[in-house]
Amino acid sequence: GQQLNQSPQSMFIQEGEDVSMNCTSSSIFNTWLWYKQDPGEGPVLLIALYKAGELTSNGRLTAQFGITRKDSFLNISASIPSDVGIYFCAGRVCERKYGNKLVFGAGTILRVKS
Amino acid sequence: EPEVTQTPSHQVTQMGQEVILRCVPISNHLYFYWYRQILGQKVEFLVSFYNNEISEKSEIFDDQFSVERPDGSNFTLKIRSTKLEDSAMYFCASSESQRGWYEQYFGPGTRLTVT
Q1: Quick one: which of A3, A6, A81, B41 has the most CB atoms within 10 Å?
Q2: Are B7 and B110 within 8 A, CB to CB?
Q3: Is the dihedral of CA A64, A65, A71, A72 positive or negative?
Q4: B45 close contact with A: CB closer than 8 A
Q5: What is the average per-residue pLDDT within B70-81?
Q6: Given B41, B104, B108, which is nearest A102 (Cβ)?
Q7: What pLDDT score was predicted for residue A3?
Q8: Would you call A42 helix, strand, or coil by DSSP?
């Protein structure tokens, strides 16, 4: 089936730093979603993207729907300690055989530098 | 703010037993989903449900699984005869119709432990 390659797998952040992560696929997507998951909790929707080239912000978070429709990135500006957690990209593949389900990336773990 | 709720938060069961996981989706949402997340792995789609029937299911969702909307508020996932490999977090999600279809909102999950 289709796969989302999410990178990096993990990263350390220092308060105030900007953070960037992305998802790529060989398939074309018509929707990209970014979620954050804290330990023991469900994913929380951060940003939804529906059109190629779309750039959407939610506070310090900015995400873009890649122009090729095969990728998306998420940026976090001026990170704070509560940004730690796991960030997942998810998308809906633009092929009828895949229906309407969301496909998730493997996640990017954000940790704080000590 | 409306949210998806799930019960129980943790369920321990013996292999071969039946379990029912319960969800109350956001009240004006029309699409409902179950996802699974094995510890340390990514979230995997199980099934979607709309208009009182399954609209889509994955290869994971075999004959041991079933879903039901027994009344106007609950949405359940039943596993008939649990296996060790069914141990995972199970998340319910819901979304509105129209443009918000793909904006799926997740519940806090039920941790299922099969011993």
Answers
A1: A6
A2: yes
A3: positive
A4: yes
A5: 92
A6: B104
A7: 82
A8: coil
pLDDT category at A71 given cuts 50, 70, 90 is: very high
The residues facing B13 across adjacent strands are B114
φ, ψ of residue A71 to 5 degrees: the values are -155, 165
- Calculated CA dihedral for residues B40, A58, B91, A90, nearest 10 degrees: -70
B108 and A42 Cβ atoms separated by less than 8 Å: yes
Q: Any CB–CB contact under 8 A between B56 and chain A?
A: yes
- Residues B52-73 pLDDT 10s: 999 889 999 999 999 999 887 8
Chains A, B: CB contacts under 8 A, how many?
Answer: 56
Among residues of chain B, what percentage have pLDDT more than 90? Answer: 70
Tokens standing for A35? 């979620």
Residue B15 CA to residue B3 CA, distance in Å, equals 32
